[in-house]
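[SOLVED] Need 3D model of a two-part complex

Original post:
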Amino acid sequence: MLAFILRRAGYALIVALLVSASTFWLLYAVGDPAIALAGQSGTAADAQAMRELYGLDRPVPVQYLEWLGRTLRGDLGFSPFLNTGVSQIVMDRLPVTLALGTASLIVGLAVALVLGIVAAVNQGRMIDRAVLVFSVLGQATPNFWLALMLIVLFGVNLGWLPISGARDWTGYVLPSAVLGFFIMPSLMRLTRAGMIEVLSSDYIRTARAKGLPRRRIILRHALRNAALPIISIAAVQFGVLLSGSIVIESVFALDGIGRLAWESLKRNDVVVVQAVILIVSTIYIFLTAMIDVLNAWLDPRIREG
Amino acid sequence: MLYAACVAASCGTAAFAGKADDTLNVAFPQEIEPLEYYKIAGREGMILAQHVYDGLLFKDIATGEIKPALAESYAYVDDTTIDLKIRKGVHFHDGSELTPEDVVYTLTTVSRPDYGARYGVTVNWIDKVEARDANTVRVTLKKPFAGALEMLTDVLPIYPRARFAKDGSAGMAAQPIGTGPYKLVEMTPGTRYVLARNDDYYADSPKGRPQIGTIVARTIPEQNTQYAELMSGALDWIWRVPPDQAGKLARMGNIQIVNGPILRFGYLTMYAAGDYPTSQLKVRQAISHAVNRQAITDAYSGGSSKVLDGPCNPAQFGCEGDFVKYGYDPDKARALLAEAGFPNGFQTVLYTGQFPPAVAEAVAGDLAAIGIKAEIRSLQYSAASEAWRKGEVPMMLANWGSYGVADVAFSTSFFFDGSPDDGAHDKAVQDWLNVADTSIDPAVRLQNYRKAMTRITEQAYWLPLYDFSVNYAVSADLNFQPSPDEFVRFYSASWK
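Solution:
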């Protein structure tokens, strides 16, 4: 088991290194950071001054190695654009994205479990079809559109919820509803399929024959066994939510790391983009590695293969 | 889409913020850099910073007059020496009193090359700054510079020496301390800034007494979200609203649209120095006649924007000359192209880093009508600019805000000075501009700018497009005056 975990961690480390090196190189390929730093009113001389001041005139591999060395020592660097240390910027923004991701996952998971179970126990009936239609809608609705519609309804017309920003928990209600709706379909289908399979298995028939209450059979015996793949996918979805909430963070003007990454990309703020990508990919790699380990622990065939 | 949904549901518009709690809520689409003025490249951060700091002088944007501010008087000793008398009794937000030492330390520090001031032009003319006596500061210039007084306004704000010396640039960014009409009381770097009125603001300030109690400035990147916040009353001020959206917002009742011209202007620059078809005068003239600038201006700018004849904004000092006017005339364009040896046109690329792709498509469409097939490359500003400076770009759409300064020394001169930004390499133009930029005699300056501007149009190095105007959508409760320099003065705003 230990060897498996170490092997997994090794792969994860290589992936993280590759990701960081390729993004570093790509950032230099799309535009000169010194010109971006000098701003849209900056002259060629201003850009040259920035290049010399921040060492941007050195070869890209040298700059990358310097960045890597600093990062390994725990120093994420200094953003010349925000004139602030990168750790502070990331620490300001990461909680917003984590809160949004967690809330969205809870919303998505709660709706998916309820609908998935309802659909499974009513397999083939009208209510099953209705749930499927609802999930197709969740998959097909562009989330920026849904976000704007919810803003108009709950923010402008009814005035119940804030339209943008997250000064308190109310600011998370609309964005997490949109993101939750977006991740719900895959979780719902997994729940439904898993429940249908489990409900037709021998031990459920035995439980029924013993005369256990239907509710207890579904929630205690069936759902527990169907839950493992759902948890795996939910963990992956959480990673997706952390890296993929850029659009929703922009629409609702949430100061999360998704938007930070996007804004920093636009202004070639290399150190910030690197830090965000490093953190998000580390969380993502950690989550997938955890799932692998979890699955291996549950199923010895994976460990040996 | 937003309006359709809103009209169908008949949007309720209760104002629950703004006038009622004396808080001006404003939003910018761009991130706002922390308020260390000398390290700010974007306009948004500069706007807020001008509320927190003051300069030695102040430019009255209505009259162009330079007025005393932190300096109560100033005098030119000679072409390269300015004496300024520092006002007594002005206090920084931390309670310390302004002294000549603050001025000397600030200006000396930020004009050092290793300080890394974002815009070299604002500080690179300063040779030295020294205190003459208990209330006089002498600024010595490296060489005569027409824009020196202009630079000594809010462009070079004064920091408190003790704080600045101790905490440096990053310290000022983290916790700005100035003498200005507002103090920064809360911040999330990049996205949210809360300013509170400075009730101890010095009485004789040319900025006047600030009216509104609190200003909350946020970044809201999505325009539709800005409109929704404005309609709901949670926002009181947004800017750069496109003409079509402005018309719809104006019908919402609680919103007024204010339009104002600004110094920013757009142009199509053509690389004349390299080995491109655009290196030929006749090709540049053909392109100039091919583009229907009036239609493009009406469609993409509107408001008070007008098609320009000269390579500068007419509101700027020095924007005069016997400009060659290139009217929309596709037949003439085709004839010129044939004379240049391209009867069937040619293939080329058109870069754009600052204009929306739609404007580039409109230009490319007009060029296609005379046989020039221009492939559009819409890049980030930094990438487009980098390619231009390497001489890899035959044509580029660009615009320039002139740092908000109404003087061509801060606009056209940068692009015809022989630097990598100069795609013309015209020695005569370079010489005239150099004389005009460094003289402090207005007559000499005008005479030389005239020659340079005239020649730029004769040679069609640039096809001037239009001067920009900005739509502001603001709460109907707000008294707000737009400024042509794109520096928004919230300190002059008040509730109705």
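Edit: Residues 7-16 of chain B have pLDDT under 50 and may be disordered.
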